[in-house]
Specification:
This protein is of the alpha/beta class and about 325 residues long. Helix content is about 30%, strand content about 20%. It folds into two domains: about 210 residues, DHBP synthase, CATH 3.90.870.10; about 90 residues, Threonylcarbamoyl-AMP synthase, C-terminal domain (Rossmann fold, 3-Layer(aba) Sandwich). A hairpin with a 6-residue loop joins strand 2 and strand 3. It is globular. It binds threonylcarbamoyladenylate (TXA) and magnesium ion (MG).
Length: about 325
């Protein structure tokens, strides 16, 4: 059920069941991170492969030392700059952290989410919450309680309703190699904002065949069921599909005159933050219209535009 009842959420987590939680990025599917049986329910319900580790959610920086065995100085700087907020740090784990959380890795991912309801929930628990995004593996992440309900219905006992997610795309993930920050996943904190705090950041170029450091960086992810194409040239793409039922996923308010079945504009004035906030809800809506194709418009590739393009690329096929 969808509820705002924190007491019920606490009770459900303590008995080893799953609770969907709101965060500023996307909704999470949470379990007691110290209860392996509860953690396995996350993988089962999401149909998530066991090699893909989970993010721990905590309510204060003080708790970080119970989770991470080492905290590089750049990590501390980033935590102080962005927590609570949409940044996940991958750090060497404390020995007590479950292998079901980390998929057997020596590192653990952790963040303090910036949502009042979930922070209150965490402060009432004496264990961290492990939570991936609350969607079936590979599908579009949920940014409202209703999205979660549409996916899982009553299979999640408690869906904690914290309204619409204010950031709209997942956290940015940063790990450390020889204490140098490495970007594992673009997200709601832009790469430029990370660089402003720590200077040099290593970024792997996946197209050049570098190792996938973070298993969530799979090429196909965040994907609607409707075939989606990403393009810089919407007019040309429209001409490729003359007889199709098309939905447009546009950054700004352009292409008013094109005859299409549906149109979503992420931000009329071209604001990246607004576009990020609207992205997944727009994708969910288009995906429910039985369209033949979705044509998505690439954003300018800077700041959050880059993070949004990353998600659109994984959601689509190349034309
Ligand atoms: O914004 C978010 O991060 C949301 C909310 C709910 O917090 N969570 C989220 O979780 O996006 P998920 O499971 O969809 O993505 C977690 C990512 C995966 O790509 C996983 O591979 C990576 O975190 N990850 C987790 N532990 C890791 C580790 N030890 N090393 C590298 N990557 C890790
Ligand atoms: Mg996810």
């Amino acid at each position: 059920m969808i509820t705002t009842d924190l007491h019920k959420a606490v009770e459900t987590l303590m008995k080893g069941e799953l609770v969907a939680i709101p965060t500023e990025t996307v909704y999470g599917l949470a379990a007691n991170a110290t209860d392996d049986e509860a953690l396995k329910k996350i993988y089962a319900l999401k149909n998530r492969p066991f090699y893909n580790p989970l993010i721990l959610h905590i309510s204060s920086l003080k708790k970080l030392a119970t989770i991470a065995a080492e905290i590089p100085s750049a990590a501390l700087k980033l935590a102080e700059a962005f927590w609570p907020g949409p940044l996940t740090l991958v750090l060497k784990k404390q020995s007590g952290i479950s292998n079901v959380v980390t998929s057997g890795k020596e590192t653990v991912a952790v963040r303090i989410p910036d949502h009042p309801l979930t922070l209150e929930l965490l402060s009432r628990l004496d264990f961290p919450l492990a939570a991936p995004s609350a969607n079936p593996f590979g599908q579009i992440s949920p940014t409202s309680a209703q999205h979660v309900y549409d996916y899982f219905g009553e299979n999640i006992e408690v869906i904690l309703d914290g309204g619409e997610c204010q950031k709209g795309i997942e956290s940015t993930i940063v790990g450390f190699e020889n204490d140098i920050p490495v970007l594992y996943r673009l997200g709601s904190v832009s790469l430029e904002d990370i660089q402003r705090v720590v200077g040099e950041v290593l970024v792997y170029n996946q197209e050049s065949g570098n190792e996938i450091k973070s298993p969530g960086m799979l090429a196909s992810h965040y994907a609607p069921r409707t075939t989606t194409y990403l393009t810089q040239d919407v007019d040309a793409a429209l001409n490729l599909y003359p007889d199709k039922k098309i939905g447009l996923l546009l950054f700004q308010n352009t292409f008013e005159n094109s005859e299409v079945s549906a149109r979503e504009v992420l931000s009329i004035n071209g604001d990246f933050e607004e576009a990020a906030r609207n992205l997944y809800a727009a994708m969910h809506r288009l995906d429910h219209l039985s369209l033949d194709v979705i044509i998505a418009q690439e954003l300018p590739n800077t700041g959050l535009g880059k993070s949004i393009n990353d998600r659109l690329t994984r959601a689509s096929k190349k034309i």
